[in-house]
Amino acid sequence: MDIGTSRPTLFDGIRNFCGVSLVGAFTSHLLLLIGDSGVGKSCLLLRFADDTYTESYISTIGVDFKIRTIELDGKTVKLQITEPNQTEPNQTKPWNANFASQWDTAGQERFRTITSSYYRGAHGICVVYDVTDMDSFNNVKQWLQEIDRYATEGVNKLLVGNKSDMSEKKVVDYQVAKEFADSLGIPFLETSAKNASNVEQAFLTMARQIKERMGSTATNNTKPSVQVGAGHGVSNNQSGGCC
C-alpha cells in the first residue's frame, strides 16, 4: 500500500496525536490484533511492550499507546503498539528502519465503523484465539472474513493461539489449528501472555514478514533502465509516443 497517496485513515490521526514523524526516517508497518473478547490480546501487548502480566482482565475501551524498540535482522525497528476497540463479528455486544504499529481491537458494535479504518490501514493482522475456548477458534473464520472485507489485498496474516500455559483446560488441538493455518498459507504460533512463551516470536514473525513483503513490493516496483547507446539510460516509465 502506498501510504503517501492513499486516503488519510485513523492511523494518520493517531500518529499525529503521538507526535511521531514517519517522514524520511521511518518506514511505516502497521499491525492489527483482532479476535474475540477475552482471548488475551491486551495481555499479549502488555507482555511484549512492558514484559508484564496481570490476572485482572479489563476489556479495552478507546485507544492505548505503547512503544518498543527492537532489533530485526540487524536493524533498529520501532514498534508503536495501539489498542482501538472492536466488536466481535456478527455480534452486538459489548520501524531509521522499519516502523511497525500494533493495534489491539477489543471485542465489544459502536466501534465497528471506526475500526474498519484500522483494517484498511494495516499491513499485517494477527488473529488471536484462546486455546481453552473452542468458540473463539471457530470464530477465526469470521475474523478472516472481516479481513477479506475491510483490509488491503495482500495484507500479512498470522494465527495466534493464546493461553498455551493452561494445558489442563486446552480444547483446541495444536495440530488442528496448524493444519487450518497451513491450508490458508499463513503462519501459526501458540503463545502464553502469562509466561511469555512465544510472545516475542509472534510479533517478530509478523514484523519480519511485513518487512519482506514490503521489500519485495518495492523491488518489483523499481523499473530498470533501458540502455540506449554507451553511457545513456532511458527510464522505461517515460511517456511513450511515435516519433
From TrEMBL:
Disordered: annotated span: 215-243
Keyword field: GTP-binding, Lipoprotein, Nucleotide-binding, Prenylation
Gene3D superfamilies, per the entry: P-loop containing nucleotide triphosphate hydrolases
Pfam families per the UniProt record, alphabetical: Ras
A GO molecular-function annotation: GTPase activity
Biased segments, Polar residues type: 216-225, 234-243
SMART domains, per database record: RAB, RAN, RAS, RHO
Keyword Nucleotide-binding: yes
Homology family: Belongs to the small GTPase superfamily. Rab family.
Protein name: GTP-binding protein ypt1
Originating species: Sporothrix schenckii 1099-18
